[in-house]
Amino acid sequence: MKGLILVNAYTQSEHELNQPRRIMAELAGLGVPCDLRRNNFVPAWVAGDIRSDAARGYDFCVYLDKDRYVPRLLERTGMRLFNRAQAVEACDDKMLTHIALAGIAPMPATIPAPLCYTAGAPLSEGFLGRVEDILGYPVVVKECYGSLGMGVYLAHDRAQLREIAARLQGKPHLFQKFIAESAGRDLRVIVIGGRAVGAMRRTSQGDFRSNAELGGRGEAAAPDPAVTAICERAASALGLDYCGVDLLLSADGPLVCEVNSNAFFGTFERVTDINVARAYAEHIVSTMQGV
Ligand SMILES: Nc1ncnc2c1ncn2[C@@H]1O[C@H](COP(=O)(O)OP(=O)(O)O)[C@@H](O)[C@H]1O
Ligand SMILES: [Mg+2]
Question: Is the domain of 270 the same as that of 131?
Fold first, then answer.
């Protein structure tokens, strides 16, 4: 058995190569060699049928990119991807994640912003008024494709809401109820092969976003059964082999904030002492062996 580990075509930093190298080493330890490659060698294309000469000889692919086309092409050739193409797409777009999990996992109330084709046309005051009525203030505004906390904003009144909505007009975005009790803290749970392997509490001083990249500090946490059940349900509904679920801690219980198909596990491994790369490698090998 041989695997292909694909990372983004433009990956440069050693830091970003850390995670694929860890997974590769654990797979090698289980007797499964892999090639680690950037997604920049034309792994597959369409010429009448699908051509994938450069990807031939691999039994599976650990897909650590978010590009949407190559994984769909590779799956059409019969290759098994970890995670699957559709699961990566559903997680990459926060609004699609919320739609997929509606009725399956508790989440904060969320409203999609309408798509704008005509630059400069303002969003109607009627729409902003509905957002205000349903979600109240302050209200969270998020870019659907944001990550590391960088596309997440807070509006305190109609003027700020109007201003942020105008700024994001050209990008898919959403409006979401602000969970005040959870400001500056959340819970990151990693789920592999349908099982929650551990949890990390993240706390930030002075910012409502608790992302590690914005200064949030992580510490090991014991996920209670309610949290575990929500995360496992969410991962399974999205068809994920591996993910990091971010939960907000509301007065009414945990709420799914977002699901990361490509969650970094460096900080998580350090603070929890859980070998995430090995757990993922074991899941991949047992899946491929049909166990
Ligand atoms: N509705 C919300 N209420 C309170 N805090 C939130 C809410 N949504 C996000 N946050 C905070 O902002 C952080 C980043 O939001 P998230 O949706 O996870 O985006 P990203 O993909 O950028 O990490 C979360 O980890 C959480 O701390
Ligand atoms: Mg997040």
Answer: no
The CATH number linked to 132 is 3.30.1490.20
For the record, the structure tokens of 275 come out as: 């070998």
Q: Residue written as tokens 């870019």?
A: 143
Domain range for 115 is 110-178
Determine which helix (DSSP H) or strand (DSSP E) holds 246, and give its type and residue range. strand 242-250
pLDDT per residue as tens digits for the range 174-227: 999 999 999 999 999 999 999 999 999 999 998 999 998 888 999 999 989 999
Looking at the structure, tell me whether residues 190 and 255 fall in a common domain.
Answer: yes
**pLDDT tens digits, one per residue of 268-284:** 999 999 999 999 999 99
CB atoms within 10 A of CB 45: 13
**Ligand 1 proximal residues by C-beta, below 6 Å:** 108, 140, 142, 146-149, 151-152, 176-179, 182-183, 186, 208-211, 246, 248, 257-258
148 secondary structure, DSSP code: T
Q: Name residues whose C-beta falls within 8 Å of residue 279's C-beta, 6 or more positions apart in sequence.
A: 192, 193, 197
Q: Which value, in Å, is the radius of gyration of the alpha carbons in the chain?
A: 20
Cα within 13 Å of Cα(155), Cβ side: 25
Tell me which residue has its CA closest to atom 4 in ligand 1: 179
